[in-house]
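[09:14] KT: can someone run the structure on this one? pasting the chain below
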Amino acid sequence: MPAKLYSAALSGINAKIVEVECDLSPGLFNFSIVGLPDAAVKESKDRVSSALKNSGASPPSRRNKRVTVNLAPADLKKEGPAYDLPIALSYLLVSEQTKFDSEKKLFAGELALNGNLRPINGVLSIAIEAKNRGFETLFVPKTNAAEAALVKDIEVVGAVNLIELLEHLENKKLIVPHQNSKINLPLVEKEEESEVDLALIRGQEKAKRVLEIAASGNHNIIFSGPPGSGKTLLAKALASILPKLNLEEAIEVTRIWSVAGLLKEDRPFLSRRPFRSPHHTASGAALVGGGAWPKPGEISLAHRGVLFLDEFPEFSRDVLENLRQPLEESFVTISRAQGSLTFPAQFLMVAAMNPCPCGYLNDTLKECTCAPSQIIRYKRKLSGPLLDRIDLHIEVPRLKYEEMSKESFGEASKIVRERVSKAREVQASRFINEGILTNREMSIRHLKKYCALDETAGKMMKSAVSSMGFSTRTYHRLLKISRTIADLENSENIKPQHLAEALQYRPREEV
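[09:31] RB: done, structure tokens below
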């Protein structure tokens, strides 16, 4: 009779249960793995054989004849080394070298040649799926145990090597299950010391106000200004005023980083919002995700955090156009011949650019040396539909000497973050039954319900739309920004002054 264990395969950021079956049959010696395995899974037979031998067990050999391992469902692509552990255990069961009850147990882990267990990617997603499918115990490498233990109501057993795990399964020497991990922020205060604090940035009060609005409602920003005016510094300071991740957001972000293999062994979860800053030479696959079997890209790694695109027009136009769907829908769908995968991409984008190739167009001190044709080509790298999806447009001018040299400090990030957190709490309370968290995520249905304008504000909006040529999308974005500004003032209704401020952050001429 074949032996059967359970493992899991990653599909995007989700996991699917996989049955690992092992059978011995007469014939010429052969160790084969079937079920749509990739190269890493096919190589598992060599790792398993050595690990079993060095752990004191009898590995597959000519005496055992044909060894067949089936990973079901057979039409689901299997990749990575996580199947080493269940393959080894299923072989030990079918060859009667061990005996244990495999019901309600799920196994995942990579084997070293000496039998030790090495960490794998995507353990948090595997633990969530195991719990949802009714499994009672999850067996993983010890270094992955803390991450898996973020999921409650499932027992997590972390083992150092194959011998230790077998002794546990045979009830010879039990491993103490890993206690459920609690998401807390023990290192945040220390990490904040290295952040760019708003108080250290001289001048640029309007840009700082835009950062506060963006952080409160999760609105996208584009900064434009000459070199050295502080665009990059402002973008980095945004991270210091964002509110802390709540439990739901922390698990979302941790799942993505776990699948991408970016979690550190001493940090099983992310306690702070991610800040990603890809270089302008990044490819489309690097930015939105991709590969033969798609992996999360920068926009997904920045989920619930910040994606900073410096030198915005220097990115390839084709690469930037890939941002249209994620900016609008907060997720990205990547299609390949094998199927389609969807990754979350609810990020706050901050773009920074110079007004022209030399950077000094309309500068008060330096003269622009660009030809008109160069300026046109430079600006055409950014399409109108892409710019229309960016909420807040702000110019960052050159600072005067008096502003650069003044000794007084502005508001500290801690003070601004308190206001931002209160605004986010207002939104969380408002959208408690809506399935969204921030104003930027509002749909047309939400706009009608929460962003009604009084008569004065309505007339102001009508005049602005007529004179500035706003699109329907821009109109909706203005309502969302106005709602955020009202939330910062703890105002139940959108007032004319809130709309007036929102109008300041839209360009008069859409590109």
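[09:33] KT: thanks! The longest helix spans residues 413-430.
[09:34] RB: yep, looked fine to me
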